[in-house]
Write a structure and sequence with these properties.
Radius of gyration of chain B: 22 Å
Number of helices of chain B: 15
Oligomer: heterodimer
Number of strands of chain B: 2
Shape of chain B: globular
Strand order of the largest sheet of chain A: 1-2
Distance between the termini of chain B: 26 Å
């Protein structure tokens, strides 16, 4: 009886205690739904002990170099080497300018969503072929298309492989690795050693492409970091994503599983929204620039990469059918053809995405 | 060049200042509204943007679309007559109706937002220079979808410019292309289809504007996506197309850099030679929008804010002065724009510079005074 009473009392006290704590305000760093975890602080920058995401930085650097190389093809009569691109993708043959990349054991290829590897290799083959054109690009003619200060190497169907590869790999490597690999229970589940969970979380963060004190500091943002910033005004992506990374890492440090899981959900949702919003922003650019082959082809090539990226999340809000339906509107006879797209079709894709992500009120402003 | 650089740096500082002023202005307006009392003696805090929008909507945009619809319908009727019996009289008639419709379009090109941008009206109706190889291959094949991106430069007024003025050296030769040429039947059909495509889109924009009118007049903020924001951005962008596409590119400019090689075939209406009249109409209509016709316009808005130019004069007066300079410079051009480019290039340079100065006043001075963010871009840049 006594013991029972003491237990009840202590439970009551604990409830009181925790409810008080809950009322303390928003500064309380512990998870309100997980009051058994003692209060801990969430830092405002990604400075934790033993943080290491050098492997991710290396892969970001590798893609940056591949892109730089592909963009040399935007100058007419610059022939690109398929072999060099395939080597860079697989990091063999010391093709990178930065020797550190050549010495690294990291390869973009081995981290690519497996079933899409061959399509990237095909794109690398295609861009090399297209780069052999010695005339300006146009409808039905591969080559460099210039508009104002910008030049883009496009296929005879208007496909800019540089964008298909860059945005494609951002999706099939960086985004896929964050949401489907490192934020999965295989990497951060309870069966994984704490030190490994911490490291895996850092690796997820490393693919985001921002400095540790983002968004206060935006110097050096790249890849998804850059697009988070672009969407920030309308979607508030910067703080939502960064805070979730910070809170999740602090949660792992403090064995706060519930909070960590909540951050996984936030990260997956917010990254997906940011990607969908970016896809719509490119459709808007393509629509405004519909009469400008360079602008339209460029924007649609980027857009395809972002729409396709939505595939990779295990908790995606959009269905594969909807993704394929959207992409098929940019195709003729199952091939991307940006000379055969109408403004209405672009609008239809925007509608598909906006309906899924609740962007109807902002779809024309994205 | 250096002059302008310094000038714009100075403007940046000014914009910041004005941005704060703009915020204060909005707060005061909100306060005033909530009190339901308005201070009549302080116009700067009291400018009725709703009245400006209502005036522009009802005196410029709605009637403008109505005129455009009438003129393009007349063009369709004239083209039907011409395709039914292609002769020189009917050709001259459809050419005249083409000119009237094109002039009516110049008044509306600046309103590329809402119902117009939803259906990419400007790109669909006036993407120049037209691609005659695409037009001709469409005509020969007889199989085409005018709504796809690859045909956007093979339709609209620029395509009609070619079809009605450019397919033969003179009227007789043009008529022959619609009577005895192998592709005559296909060409007649193409003419009909291009006009139908254009009129359908103009019809959609015109119809949708009646529903959009309330949205337009009640969205009285100056934020991105507001009606004021749309108007100022589009005024600026439209003037940039006068400077860049209508004058600069034919003059051999890439951006602000002259290549010294003129490109007359890139002008707005190369085959009919209406380019000068069209760009003149474009500028006159732009000025009329600025002044709100005879009603409330941006001039009144700027004056209500007591917006001053660098030299202390009223900014609105300065802008009107510069509109006049640009308009006079275009008026001074040879009626045949190709001639102007070939034989009197300094006049064209003058027009280019005057329009450029006008853009600075609208894009920097006016936009900053009104707290409007210029958010259109021509290119992605990455």
């Amino acid at each position: 009886m006594n013991i029972k009473f003491a237990f009840l009392l202590s439970t009551l006290l604990l409830m009181l205690f925790s409810s008080c704590k809950r009322n303390k305000g928003t500064d309380d760093p512990s998870n309100p739904e997980n009051p058994s975890v003692p209060a801990y602080e969430v830092p405002t920058t990604y400075n934790f002990s033993s943080v290491d995401y050098s492997g991710q930085t290396t892969r970001l650097d590798m893609l940056a170099e591949i892109v730089t190389y592909m963009k040399t093809g935007n100058t007419m009569n610059t022939v690109l080497s398929e072999g060099k691109l395939l080597n860079m993708y697989d990091n063999v043959g010391s093709e990178f300018t930065a020797s550190a990349l050549n010495l690294s054991t990291k390869k973009l290829k081995e981290k690519t969503f497996i079933t899409d590897v061959s399509s990237f290799e095909d794109y690398m083959d295609s861009i090399a072929v297209v780069s052999q054109s010695t005339v300006a690009g146009s409808n039905g003619q591969a080559g460099v298309i210039t508009s104002g200060m910008s030049s883009y190497l496009c296929s005879k169907y208007g496909v800019e492989y540089t964008q298909m590869i860059e945005k494609g790999l951002m999706g099939a490597v960086f985004y896929y690795q964050i949401v489907a690999v490192y934020l999965s229970s295989d990497k951060i589940g309870p069966q994984i050693l704490k030190a490994d969970r911490q490291h895996h979380w850092d690796e997820a963060f490393g693919y985001f492409g921002v400095p540790t004190d983002f968004p206060t500091n935006k110097i050096g943002i790249r890849f998804f970091g850059k697009y988070s910033e672009e969407r920030n005004t309308l979607l508030g992506s910067n703080a939502k994503i960064m805070n979730a990374f910070l809170k999740g890492r602090a949660a792992i440090n403090n064995d706060d599983v519930a909070t960590m899981n909540a951050q996984v959900t936030i990260l997956r949702d917010e990254l997906e929204k940011m990607i969908a919003g970016t896809a719509i922003s490119y459709l808007n650019k393509a629509k405004v620039g519909i009469a400008d082959d360079a602008v339209r082809n460029h924007a649609l090539s980027e857009g395809v990469g972002f729409i396709k990226a939505l595939t990779y999340s295990p908790t995606k809000k959009i269905t594969n059918t909807e993704i394929n339906n959207a992409l098929s509107k940019l195709q003729t006879n199952n091939k991307y053809d940006f000379y055969s797209v109408s403004d209405l079709e672009m609008e239809e894709i925007k509608t598909i995405l906006s309906n899924v992500y609740g962007f109807n009120s902002i779809k024309n402003s994205l | 060049m250096e002059d302008i650089y310094n000038f714009s740096v100075e403007k940046k500082g000014m914009r910041k200042l004005v941005g704060n002023k703009g915020l204060l202005f909005i707060i005061i307006i909100v306060l005033l509204y909530s009190c339901n009392k308005r201070k009549k003696d302080d116009p700067s805090n009291d400018f009725d943007r709703g009245a400006l929008l209502s005036n522009i909507g009802s005196s410029k945009i709605i009637p403008g679309y109505s005129t455009l619809k009438t003129k393009t319908t007349a063009l369709k009727d004239a083209a039907d007559l011409f395709t039914a019996s292609p002769d020189e009289t009917n050709l001259a008639n459809v050419q005249d109706k083409f000119k009237q419709a094109y002039l009516a379009w110049e008044a509306m090109e600046v309103y590329e937002f809402g119902p117009a941008s939803d259906i990419v009206l400007r790109a669909s109706v006036n993407s120049f220079p037209t691609t005659i190889s695409t037009i001709n291959s469409n005509i020969s094949s007889g199989s085409y979808d005018l709504d796809i991106s690859g045909n956007i430069k093979a339709k609209g007024f620029p395509a009609l410019d070619y079809l009605l003025f450019g397919v033969g050296a003179d009227q007789t030769a043009i008529v022959a292309m619609y009577t005895s040429d192998t592709d005559a039947a296909n060409r007649k059909l193409y003419l009909t289809n291009v006009i139908a495509n254009m009129n359908s889109r103009i019809g959609i924009a015109t119809n949708n504007w009646s529903a959009y009118f309330t949205t337009f007049t009640t969205n009285t903020s100056t934020d991105v996506g507001s009606s004021i924001g749309f108007l100022v951005n589009n005024m600026s962008m439209s003037l940039e197309t006068v400077r860049r596409e209508r004058i600069g590119t034919p003059l051999g400019y890439v951006g602000l850099v002259s290549t010294g090689t003129i490109a007359p075939q890139t002008q707005e209406a190369y085959y009919s030679n209406y380019s000068k009249e069209l760009m003149l109409e474009n500028l006159i209509q732009s000025k009329d929008l600025f002044n709100g016709g005879v009603g409330v316009g941006f001039d009144d808005y700027l004056n209500a804010l007591d917006a001053k130019y660098d030299d202390g004069t009223l900014l609105a007066s300065q802008i009107n002065l510069q509109y006049n300079k640009a308009i006079y410079a275009v008026e001074d051009l040879d009626p045949d724009f190709t001639n102007a480019l070939t034989n009197n290039v300094s006049n064209v340079e003058t027009a280019f510079l005057e329009v450029k100065k006008l853009i600075v006043l609208i894009k920097l001075d006016m936009a900053s005074q009104l707290g409007v963010v210029i958010n259109y871009t021509d290119n992605d840049g990455d």
